[in-house]
Amino acid sequence: MTQSDFENFEQNFAAASSAAESPQSQPQPVAATPEPEAQPEQPLQTSPLPSELHESTANATWSRMLQGNKRFAEGKAEHPWQDKETRHMLTDGQKPDAAVLSCSDSRVPPEIIFDQGLGDLFTVRTAGQMIDDAVIASLEYAVKKLHVSLLCVLGHGRCGALEVAEREFNELVRTVTAEAEESQDSIEAEDIMDDLDERIAQSDSIVLRQAGISVWQAREAELDCLDDIERVHVAHTIEALVDRSEVIQQALASEQLMIVGARYQLDTGRVEVLSF
Ligand SMILES: [Zn+2]
């Protein structure tokens, strides 16, 4: 990631975070409306796709998703766009407004907790919202081909994947500490502890490789509870996505994409908007 890429990320991410904190505010100029690709002929010429009935800015989309989450949490979900007519309208194409990268946890389905319908969200789900080439390629498809203006990285409370990552991180720290104590050379012992990030990166465990750094960063910031580790992991996931994807970097730089971080709370049903 170049310096300019990082500056672009920081600028856009700051704009995204501040916009997400005030979802009801006027849309910020961070999400330019891209030129739509030629759409296939619609089966019902007078009935646009559900997504096209909404404002297509990222802020409006995020605001609508948060409103849907409020309905869901209050037990007033409307289950929009899930009828037979909508299904027929969508047979020839999709134009979702947002992509969501979230955990595979059965308690956290994005369409339900945001009270959205068919055609609204392009979702990618893995345990602990961990990323690999397939995840990145899927999100790049949503950004480049489907022109989503919003990418939401969604963590959640009591995430089993993060619990595993924390446990494996603790085991690694115990191992590394024991190695350092066994070393007679104090400088070598110091190096062993300093190389913790490399030991995480070289681990055989995909969970530790993906989420261990999040646990480590949280610990470095003296954030010890799982809730905080989950928040740090969302931030780390966004940073890694931007770092690894030129498509996402370019979409942020050209103000065609906004990224927001959020965390779903199992107890309340509400989505907590994160700012970093
Ligand atoms: Zn989870």
UniProtKB/TrEMBL annotation:
Q: Which UniProt keywords apply?
A: Lyase, Metal-binding, Zinc
Q: Which Gene3D superfamilies match?
A: Carbonic anhydrase (3.40.1050.10)
What's a BP term from Gene Ontology annotated to this protein? Answer: carbon utilization
* Compositional bias (Polar residues): 1-11
**Annotated Pfam families:** Pro_CA (PF00484)
For binding Zn(2+), which residues are annotated in this chain's numbering?
Answer: 103, 105, 156, 159
The prosthetic group or cofactor this protein requires is:
Zn(2+)
Q: Where are the transmembrane segments?
A: none
Ribosomal protein recorded as keyword: no
Superkingdom, natural source: Bacteria
Q: Where is this region: Disordered?
A: 1-57
The record describes how the cofactor is bound as: Binds 1 zinc ion per subunit.
Question: Which residues lie in Low complexity bias regions?
Answer: 14-45
What this chain does, per the entry, is described as: Catalyzes the reversible hydration of carbon dioxide to form bicarbonate.
Q: Which PANTHER family does the UniProt record give?
A: CARBONIC ANHYDRASE (PTHR11002), CARBONIC ANHYDRASE 2 (PTHR11002:SF79)
Family, similarity comment = Belongs to the beta-class carbonic anhydrase family.
Q: What is this protein called?
A: carbonic anhydrase
